[in-house]
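Retry 2 of 3 after timeout on previous attempt. Resubmitting structure tokens to design endpoint.
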């Protein structure tokens, strides 16, 4: 059975649009996973107090049979393959892939919390989720 997972993409280093594109392609190649919908790309101010360039952000909906932890591990692998270095929490990055929601599941583990705890505070994520739900004809 497939689940609908929502992944937020962000980049503020180098060719931001190309990083988003490469991440989308890599996600589309994950096992038992397909891209179901893509939100518009938008530019946002960085979060946190560190001075850095603005982000390009987008959210994708994936239909997947991967379990949440396996999907998160795969997303971290994509980040690493695209040059992501985990230096400090709010540091600039080539690519950031956040698993925001996974079906209706609630997960609270040391390495994964679903829905993502940042969702209520990130207006752009909420906009992008609404856009995807509208595209997919899904209830929120």
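Retry 2 succeeded. Sequence:
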């Amino acid at each position: 059975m497939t689940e609908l997972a929502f992944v937020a993409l962000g980049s503020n280093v180098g060719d931001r649009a190309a990083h988003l594109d490469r991440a989308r392609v890599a996600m589309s190649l994950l096992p038992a996973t397909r891209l179901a919908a893509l939100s518009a790309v938008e530019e946002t101010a960085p979060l946190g107090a560190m001075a850095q360039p603005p982000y390009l952000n987008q959210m994708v909906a994936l239909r997947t049979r991967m379990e949440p932890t396996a999907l998160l591990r795969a997303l971290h692998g994509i980040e690493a393959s695209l040059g992501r270095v985990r230096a400090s929490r709010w540091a600039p990055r080539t690519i950031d892939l956040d698993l925001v929601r996974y079906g209706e599941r609630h997960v609270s583990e040391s390495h994964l919390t679903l829905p993502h705890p940042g969702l209520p505070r990130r207006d752009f994520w909420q906009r992008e989720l609404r856009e995807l739900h509208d595209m997919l004809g899904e209830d929120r």
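Attempt log closed. Strands lie at 3-11, 33-38, 42-44, 55-64, 96-102, 107-108, 113-114.
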